[in-house]
Amino acid sequence: MAESGQEALEFIGEDYDLILVDRYTNNMNGLETIRLLRERHMRSKIIGLTSGEIEIDRAAMIQAGADDCLEEPLQIDRR
To answer: What's the domain range around 63?
Structure first.
């Protein structure tokens, strides 16, 4: 697990099924992280996470290259 966007970029040589990216991270924001992952041909599914305005952040994260965006805190349905 990476603690920052910059640290996440160091894992690029690895193959992942899913990458979760927080929109509001320290050092490098989630949009920049997603753009750089896609520029470096990361083909994993990328899901953005946001505690901000979900519709605005979802559009921005998808435009940056995310596959979708979820609102934090995440709710787990235990049905």
So the answer is: 26-79
* H or E element that contains 48: strand 45-50
Q: pTM above the 0.70 mark?
A: yes
Q: Which residues pair with 34 in a beta bridge?
A: none
Domain count, the chain: 1
In a domain, 14, yes or no: no
10-68: pLDDT as tens digits: 877 777 899 999 998 877 899 999 999 999 998 999 999 999 898 999 999 999 999 99
Domain-embedded: residue 3:
no
DSSP state of 41: T
- Residue 39 lies inside a defined structural domain of this protein: yes
SS3 70: strand
How far is Cα 2 from Cα 8, in angstroms, rounded to an integer? 5
